[in-house]
């Protein structure tokens, strides 16, 4: 399959492609495994699940799944939100309209994680339903250092979905049925290379998720040239028509080992005020409207549970459009 339509303002129809454009020499390597070859036409790359991967999980049933309530809930986040769920966020978000997709260019890092059962990721969320048991979520971005899931500290491209607030449905990447991949050059769960360094070169990836207005499937594109695949419409109840909220930003798990806040870093591990080359960013954040047009989001709000641990600052300019810096070091003198 191919998507029937791309959002207007992104690509011409004749550019809709399942592979790279012809000027191979000008494109950086997107993933480390590409150094060792490509998959033949008619196949897709799948990251091998090994015995030790399963053994790292707390149970076979939980392998490849997120814990409940890992979506930031800006308006109703009470004081017990952190201690109850252990997930912390620094996000920008929009709500109050019908959304048919979202796009962002995301700075890639390899933040440090304190405990094997913690992770640090940066992603976009496409959400429908309430934040109770009927939440539908489509998620995509980069996930760094999730030792439980991957066994190493590389930054990796990932997707996730759920149709019941992470209770029984959904998983990362291709670890359960759901997402249908059509691309033979990009592997979900594979390492992204190169990554950004503090006061060094900065590298980012672009992710677009949009709803096909004809078939109703939710498609994902990586960069300008790779249409990766789609989430079939039948997976969802509250994303059948449109999304009600879009979120962009970072998430970490804070397991509060020994009663202290985790030192797990979000993004670069540095606060937003440090700016380019030091702090991590999302730039050119956009939504897809009901006319299948990519446009700047209106009334962007921000949310973080503890700004002394992880923070977010939004901005706007000509080259980056709507953007924000986000992240932080976790435990510090102001974040005990």
From TrEMBL:
Record field: compositional bias (Polar residues): 16-25
InterPro entries: Glutamic_endopeptidase, Neprosin, Neprosin_propep
Domain Neprosin PEP catalytic as annotated: residue spans: 81-336
UniProt-listed Pfam families: Neprosin, Neprosin_AP
Region (Disordered): 1-33
Domain of life: Eukaryota
Name of the protein in its database record: Neprosin PEP catalytic domain-containing protein
């Amino acid at each position: 399959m191919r998507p029937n339509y791309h959002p207007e303002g992104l690509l011409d129809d004749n550019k809709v492609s399942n592979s790279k454009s012809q000027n191979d020499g000008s494109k950086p390597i997107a993933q480390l495994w590409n150094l060792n070859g490509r998959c033949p036409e008619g196949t897709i790359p799948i990251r091998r699940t090994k015995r030790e991967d399963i053994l790292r999980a707390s149970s076979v049933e939980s392998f490849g799944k997120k814990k409940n309530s890992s979506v930031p809930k800006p308006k109703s986040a009470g004081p017990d939100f952190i201690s109850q769920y252990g997930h912390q966020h620094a996000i920008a978000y929009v709500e109050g309209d019908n959304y048919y997709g979202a796009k962002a260019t995301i700075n890639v890092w390899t933040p440090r994680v304190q405990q094997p059962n913690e992770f640090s990721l940066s992603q976009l969320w496409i959400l429908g339903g309430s934040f109770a048991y009927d939440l539908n979520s489509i998620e995509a971005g980069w996930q760094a250092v999730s030792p439980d899931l991957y066994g190493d500290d590389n930054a990796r491209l990932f997707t996730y979905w759920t149709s019941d607030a992470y209770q029984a449905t959904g998983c990362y990447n291709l670890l359960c049925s759901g997402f249908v991949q059509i691309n033979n050059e990009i592997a979900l769960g594979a390492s992204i290379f190169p990554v950004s360094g503090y006061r060094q070169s900065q590298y980012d990836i672009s992710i677009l998720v949009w709803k096909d207005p004809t078939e109703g499937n939710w498609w994902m594109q990586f960069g300008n040239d790779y249409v990766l695949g789609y989430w079939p419409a039948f997976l969802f109840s509250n994303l059948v028509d449109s999304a009600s909220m879009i979120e962009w930003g970072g998430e970490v798990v804070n397991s509060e080992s020994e009663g202290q806040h985790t030192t797990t870093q979000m993004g670069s591990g540095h606060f937003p005020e440090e700016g380019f080359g030091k702090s991590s960013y999302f730039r050119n954040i956009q939504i897809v409207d009901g006319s299948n047009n990519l446009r700047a989001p209106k009334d962007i709000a921000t949310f973080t549970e503890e700004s002394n641990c992880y923070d977010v600052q939004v901005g706007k300019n000509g080259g980056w459009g709507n953007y924000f810096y986000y992240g932080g070091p976790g435990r510090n003198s102001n974040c005990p």
